[in-house]
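Re-running the complex after MR caught last week's input typo. The corrected sequence lines follow. Everything else is unchanged.
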Amino acid sequence: MIRQVEALLKKDILLEFRQKHTFYGILLYVAATIFVIYLSLPDSPDAQVWNSLFWVIQLFVCVNAVAKSFLQESKGRMLYFYTITSPIEFIIGKLVFNTLLMLLMSLISLSLFLLFLGNPTINILQFVGISLLGGIGISLVFTLMSAIAAKAQQNAALIAILGFPVILPQLMLLMRLSKAAFAEVFRDGALFQLVGLTILMDIFVIVLSIVLFPYLWKD
Amino acid sequence: MKKNWWKILSFLLLAYTIIAGFLLDVPHLPILNETIRNLYFHVCMWFGMMILFSISFVYSINYLRGFNYRNDIFATNFAAVGSLFGILGYLTGVLWVNVTWITDQNQSLGSVLKEPKLIGAAIALLIYGAYFVLRGSFNDIDKRARISAVYNIFAFAMLFPSIWIIPRIVGSLHPGSPGSDSGNPALDKKDLDDAMRIVFYPAVIGWTLLGVWIATIKIRIDIIKNKNIINE
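Corrected-run output:
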């Protein structure tokens, strides 16, 4: 099973290297959005604005990065996967790949944010950790949403509609959490509680994806 | 007649709710005054909504177990009536907010909308809005039923953690939040006067039964419409 997941993951990564234009497309999307924000905001915005803009950008980057994970698979190729692998291995492969992709994107957009919009954080390492944690959570939810939307016709817009209400609480949690890196003092243990809650949500999403994906798989 | 007893019960309970709810004595509290009677309507809508969504969730699971199209009809219609209850819950809430938070406590509308309970309710309505948009984007009936059942299960399962988490993130004026030194207003013993309890509990049951009643009528219409594709 692990070897199958590995092979699927390798195939996705290889595809990403072969079709570099999609990867660069997302990269350009990130850079262009952040540049627009940089032009439309005064220099070095305050921490609150910085924080909320960062998470909104993360959300849209994820929608764009993860959306194609199921859309790019043509009908014939899905049929091929259907014969050689099980749905559980397939979805785990996709979840892992999208998480890795989103982790990379989080780091890139964070460094662009620091470059263009300055650094209002007190503890930058903590913020890096939180943004990686957030990237994982967002990518997991949108992987399943992309699998659902891929089955419908007008899929690109559908991902956002389906995913936003579901991701909203997690996003609020992350925005709250990231205030820790802006020198806001938390009660003892509250920070760990919030981090634990986020991780629990992630595990919950993984379990739900594994349980539900087999029903999306067949056509 | 034997099968219809609960419809009669629903009617009687709602008649009782309206008559007793408006005529019986209620505690006189500052700010709330007589608007406290809205409890019999506003809170019941949210109870009804959650119960109807839960029924819809169960039917979605049932659909995925056997792919019986009938279960899909049940799941959709319960979700639709649940959304209606959610909208009614908002409307009754707006009336209440108007005389308590906004006029008496000088809250702005913006801060009212950031109440955790309101966010939870908004998420619920957005989820079911998305559910119906998703349904609308399919032509194939079986595919529509299957995929929307998957979304219904996923979204409902995510809804509960959200309702549990959000109050820990934002502060609240709403009764029944951790910040407002009381538990759930409807269930905590010390929060609700006994005089209101004797109207409130029957009201919850009555409104929920009414919701189920509306849903069953819609389901029967849908089943007749799709008679040729449902194989018994």
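None of the earlier attempt is carried over here. Residues 2-217 of chain A form one domain. The interface with chain B takes residues 141, 144, 148, 151-154, 158, 161-162, 164-166, 168-169, 172-173, 176, 193-194, 197, 201, 204-205, 208, 212, 215-216, 219 of chain A (CB under 8 Å).
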